[in-house]
Structures are given as C-alpha cells and as structure tokens.
Amino acid sequence: QVQLVESGGGLVQPGGSLRLSCVASGSSFSRYAMGWHRQAPGKQRELVARITSGGSTNYADSVKGRFTISRDNAKNTVYLQMNSLKPEVTAVYSCNAVFHGLGFSYDYWGQGTQVTVSS
Q1: 4: how many CB neighbours lie within 10 A of its CB?
Q2: pLDDT value, residue 101
Q3: 100 has a pLDDT exceeding 90
C-alpha cells in the first residue's frame, strides 16, 4: 500500500510561486504514474498535471507554461512548481499515484494541500 503526503501549500500573492511536494511510501515509487489534481469550492476535481513512470508529462491547458511537474525517484517525491499564480488557481491540490498491472490496478490519493492565491 502506498501512502502519499503532500506539503508546500499555503497563501501567496498573485504573481508569486509555490512548489508542492508529495512524498510516497514504499519501494515501488518509480513504477507509478504520478499526478496532481485540484478541486476548487463548488467545482469538480480536475487533473492539473501528470508524469508517467518514464517521465512523460501532461498538463491541463490552463496551466501550461506556468506549472511544471517533476519527480525524483531517489526521494520518492513528485513536485509541482507553480509560477505566475493567479487567484483562479485557488483550490485543494491532491497527489495521486496510479499503477496498472495485469488484471488489476491501484489508485492512491493524498490528503490534499490548500493553495490560496490572494492579495
């Protein structure tokens, strides 16, 4: 079983930056695809960014060019660098780990970390 613990959220001014971190337990981190999702009040949870076990990345159109997802397999950690922050990105950001095996799959979630962009 994988446990995910996010950190790095908080309150920042518009135009500022944050780096979210998600540390995973276990010894199989490198085999998981990792992602960041967010959910704002009254809205559906949406995918923000994803990185595969091979390092390929995908981003929501709204964050391309401003957010960067990366992973450090030696540290069992995935990051989300968030630059040029706008109030509209305010949400709870959650870390996700996915593994697909033969005839089975696993999907793990962290507890979430609040990101608030406000002056």
Answers
A1: 21
A2: 85
A3: no
Does residue 56 carry a pLDDT above 90? yes
Burial degree of 89 (CB within 10 A; 0-12, 13-18, 19+): buried
How many angstroms separate the CA atoms of 63 and 83, rounded? 9
Strand 46-51 versus strand 33-39 pairing type: antiparallel
Mean pLDDT of 44-48: 97
User: What are the distances in angstroms from CA 94 to CA 15, 20, 32, 114, 116?
Assistant: 22, 10, 16, 9, 14
- Hunting for tokens 């406000």 — which residue is that? 118
What's the rounded mean pLDDT across residues 64-74? 97
Long-range contacts from 40-47, C-beta under 8 angstroms, 24+ separation = 40/90, 40/91, 40/92, 43/91, 45/94
Task: Say what the pLDDT of residue 9 is.
Answer: 98
Rounded to an integer, what is the distance from CA 6 to the centroid of its chain?
A: 8
Among 10, 29, 24, which Cα is nearest to 82's? 10
Picking from 94, 114, 77, the residue whose alpha carbon sits closest to that of residue 38 is 94
